[in-house]
């Protein structure tokens, strides 16, 4: 250390020490401490806002993914309906009534399709066939309304992203959507899912769905 510095330090240490005036302390606090506290508050508020925005974005993205996945069920129903209509044999078992068609599925699908409605004069049952709905086998029942074919797919419901059901359907509630000119009604009963699809009028399709959902 320089000799002059050592001498100045020794002189300062010999000076009497008095407490700083309260006014000086307040001035120093206002000058240095409060802005830092307010700055930290602003930083904390900014971080909180960023985190809240990230949570909101995540929720929106999750909801969008759920909505997109649920929309896939409607698209699958339309695709499978068209695939069945254009198949070489759209009906594998001719209808002699639901009590003839239902037993035909035994051993062909890995569940017992629950269907009590066997058709009527408005919606005659034409027959049935084995189809695929996504990655699983489905029992496809073919109805008709005048010249309009109507397909009811019955399949295992677990593992599928079901859309929110908003349409009353007898004891059940269904989700409904229209894609490429085809109306689709989706609902669940126990472990089974139901997809009813056709280009028939929406009110008529809902009427058939109500008859199917009401039967046990």
Written description of the protein model:
The chain is of the alpha+beta class and 216 residues long. The chain has a domain at 76-214: MucB/RseB, C-terminal domain (Phosphorylase Kinase, domain 1, 2-Layer Sandwich). It is 44% helix and 26% strand. It contains four helices and eight strands; from the N terminus they run ααβαβββββββα. It has helices at 3-14, 22-85, 98-104, 202-214, and strands at residues 93-94, 125-133, 136-145, 148-156, 167-169, 172-179, 182-189, 192-198. The chain has an eight-stranded antiparallel beta sheet, sandwiched between helices. The protein starts with a helix and ends with a helix. The model is unreliable at 49-67 (pLDDT under 50).
Q: Any idea what the CATH architecture of the domain at 76-214 is?
A: 2-Layer Sandwich
Distance between the termini: 100 Å
- Strand content bin: 25-35%
Shape: elongated
Structural class: alpha+beta
């Amino acid at each position: 250390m320089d000799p002059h510095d050592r001498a100045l330090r020794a002189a300062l240490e010999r000076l009497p020490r008095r407490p700083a005036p309260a006014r000086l302390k307040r001035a120093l606090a206002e000058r240095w401490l409060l802005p830092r506290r307010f700055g930290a508050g602003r930083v904390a508020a900014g971080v909180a806002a960023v985190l809240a925005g990230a949570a909101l974005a995540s929720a929106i993205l999750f909801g969008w993914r759920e909505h997109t996945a649920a929309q896939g069920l409607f698209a699958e129903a339309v695709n499978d309906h068209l695939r069945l209509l254009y198949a070489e044999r759209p009906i594998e078992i001719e209808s002699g009534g639901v009590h003839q068609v239902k037993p035909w599925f035994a051993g062909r699908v890995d569940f017992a399709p629950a269907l009590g409605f066997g058709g009527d004069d408005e919606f005659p049952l034409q027959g049935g066939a084995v189809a695929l709905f996504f990655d699983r086998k489905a029992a496809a029942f073919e109805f008709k309304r005048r010249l309009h074919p109507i397909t009811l797919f019955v399949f295992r419901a677990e593992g599928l992203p079901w859309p929110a059901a908003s349409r009353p359907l007898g004891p059940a509630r269904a989700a409904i959507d229209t894609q490429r000119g085809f109306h689709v009604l989706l609902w669940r009963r126990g472990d089974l899912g139901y997809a009813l699809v056709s280009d028939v009028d929406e009110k008529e399709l809902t009427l058939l769905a109500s008859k199917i959902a009401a039967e046990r």
